[in-house]
Amino acid sequence: MKNLNILIVEGNLRDENQSFSKVGIQTHTESLKDSLNRFNHNYCFDVINPSSNFNLDETKNKLPKYDGLIWGGSSLNIYNNTPEIKRQIEFMKECQKQVKNILAICWGMQVAVTAAGGEVKKAEKSHIGIANAIKINNEGLNNSIYRNKNNDFNSPAFNFDEVVKLPKNAICLASNEINKVQSLYFEVGKSKIYGLQYHPEITYEKMISLIEFRKDRLIQVRKVFKDEAEIKNHILFIKKEITVSNKSQRMIELKNWIDSIS
């Protein structure tokens, strides 16, 4: 397999990543690198954070050299439209003009959709650490991203928002009861874009750590749990999923995308 030049776009703000590191939680970029390195080590990674890196010109000039770009998750909400979010959307537009292959995960999918003219809104329900009963539709069953994937599956996930309007010519590939668009594919500019609302690159163990780290916010601000006892019960539910989850199945979308650009 040839060496692949991959650009990783970090979606979280620098302060959020520093708060992760202080409590021993990997950043999303670190998790992604670990997952990719399970397949092989023939990768040349560059990392960019459009919200926190203010000189993007050098990276923009190098965009055509990348075999693929992976845009990861974030705790941001795209409809808040802060300057940091606007920078990410504008950088995604530039990537869609110059990068052939883009894998956009969770927040990354929401940025890709917004940059291409789609719409993201706050969801009525949330995924906290896990998404259940994701079903691949007929379009997805015929798509290479789901080669050898179980038709009905659970996955690590953490999102409060959802795609409500697809970009032009986009195709929904999978859904569940909480998010109608769990994955999609579309082409815009020079890019072939796969979007996943869930996280094949993040372990359930990390999701549990994120829940524990964010427990006060989940109760008091997000109001998705009424108290710590409810959070503990939810964590027990995820731990049961760990006992039956197959790591290769969980990560197969990541592998299929890498295989497609190799």
Brief sketch in words of this structure:
This protein is an alpha/beta fold. It has eleven helices and eleven strands. It has one domain: Class I glutamine amidotransferase (GATase) domain (Rossmann fold), CATH 3.40.50.
Question: Can you give a write-up of this model?
Answer:
α4 crosses α5 (107-115). The chain is an alpha/beta fold. The protein has a single domain (4-261), classed as Class I glutamine amidotransferase (GATase) domain (Rossmann fold), CATH 3.40.50.880. Helix content is 38%, strand content 25%.
Considering the chains and any ligands shown, give keywords for the structure.
single chain; about 260 residues; alpha/beta; Rossmann fold; nine-stranded mixed beta sheet; two-stranded antiparallel sheet; 11 helices; globular
| Arithmetic mean pLDDT | 96
CATH superfamily: Class I glutamine amidotransferase (GATase) domain
CATH top level is Alpha Beta
Show unreliable segments: none
Strand content: 25-35%
Radius of gyration: 17 Å
Query: What is the CATH T-level topology?
Result: Rossmann fold
The DSSP helix count reads 11
How many separate structural domains?
1
Instruction: Walk across the major sheet and give the strand order.
Output: 2-1-3-4-11-10-9-6-7
Outline the biggest β-sheet: 9 strands, mixed
Find the count of extended strands (DSSP E, 2+ residues). 11
* Distance N to C terminus: 7 Å
Question: Based on CA inertia axes, which overall geometry fits?
Answer: globular
CATH architecture: 3-Layer(aba) Sandwich
Helix content: 25-40%
